[in-house]
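[step 3/7] fold_predict: job queued, chain A
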Amino acid sequence: MGDFDPRRPFRAQTAVKHGISRARLRSADFKQLIRGCYIESGTCIDVVTRAQAAVLMVPGAVVSHHTAMTIWGVTVPAQRIHLTVPPRRRTTLPEVRLHRLKARPRYTTRHGLRITTPIQTFVDLGGYVDGAELVAIADRLLRLRLVTLAELRQAAGSARGQHSAAIREAAALAREGVDSMMESKLRMVIIGGGLPEPEVNHRIVREDGSVRRRIELVYADLKIAIEYDGRHHIDRQAQWQADILRREELEAEGWKFIVVTNEDLRDPEALLERIRRAIRERTRAA
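[step 4/7] structure written:
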């Protein structure tokens, strides 16, 4: 079969040239990724595979927006594969969302795909996700060391168009050292509720200067700690138990912990009131 590998996306015409009939393509031996594009059944299909299929059917396209960000390691859910193409390019593929730009976007190569750079992708998403999500994306790019804060803010400052203000605001609110996107969204709930911005990734150190504990969000002067508990620790019971014990140790030293779950984020006003109450109590006691 030469260079033909059915474990990678291929066009129907290519399969026929290599002796695979269209009838067999419709059998359980193969799976259709996109209309006219197939892969051998049993092959692992991820976002990269789907993007490879889309680019195969739209030659010259650059993977962008939600799809590019997910491939960079920052998951931004989308049902369709997002591609950027020149203005006159068209497609009738329902699995693909085309974005048309006069100027070619900044791109690089990853997994053999032409893909917008992390900075370009962040700017592109400014018109497609809300402010809190865009901040969370920026925080994650920083955490993965795909961009620097200076690069992020420079790109945001150069952004033009109706969404440029949102892009600049997200870059201004981005912080280094944030461990998860949910922590970013929690921080945005706090700021959006009119409360002071808490310090990110606060370090409690021992007398010798070594780090004893990192806390996600704090009001250090009031000894208020806010932590997101996604309950993913349920698969790491020992880690979860250790976190509880560390919290108890710090509470014995005067820290007030506010533990936030995903359920709490569904009722932000109730969460904000918990934080306001803690601030009031600590301020009165100071």
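[step 5/7] annotate
The CA atoms of residues 27 and 218 lie 58 Å apart.
The chain is about 40% helix and 20% strand.
exit 0
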